[in-house]
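Please complete every field before forwarding. Incomplete forms are returned to the sender.

SECTION A: IDENTIFIERS
Entry label: holo-166
Bound molecule: zinc ion
Molecule representation: SMILES string

SECTION B: INPUTS
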Amino acid sequence: MLPPDVAAALQSKKLTISVMPSSTWGTKAPLADYNPVTHEIRLNRDGISNLVGNKNNNVAERIFHEMGHWIHMNGPQWYKDEIEKLYDAKTAGESKIWSSIYNCWIKRDRWYDEYAGDINKLEVVTRHFQLLTNPMKMELEMMNSPNGSTIAENMKTVLKVFYEHK
Ligand SMILES: [Zn+2]
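SECTION C: PREDICTED COMPLEX
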């Protein structure tokens, strides 16, 4: 059960999930997206189909990622503040650089994955949430990524939305 303030914040933001064929996506189609106005998660059917069997990608991971956006953007203010504080602390002194992998500006730090450093500060929750669907991947990232040790550390803040309220 979610803390009452989190549940209250999300109650009026009912989430829907739909699977859309490739024809509805543009040329630079992501595997999934979240619409913060309609609260719809769209899964890119063809994009995801191409990855079936790839242990690094699964539908649940995409859904958890987008649900991370939903909870982060619509959750209580204290949670947004905590995530911002975490991002700022971890990237202090870093200047923004272009990520050619993700086509966005990022601030480097010891993230396990550089997309978590997106300067919009909206990918810290999502990149960590998605690991929850894939214990094997989380284990490999924790053990093998040069920054794997930050996963557990960052989870302490990211998971607060499930048990803390203010
Ligand atoms: Zn995202």
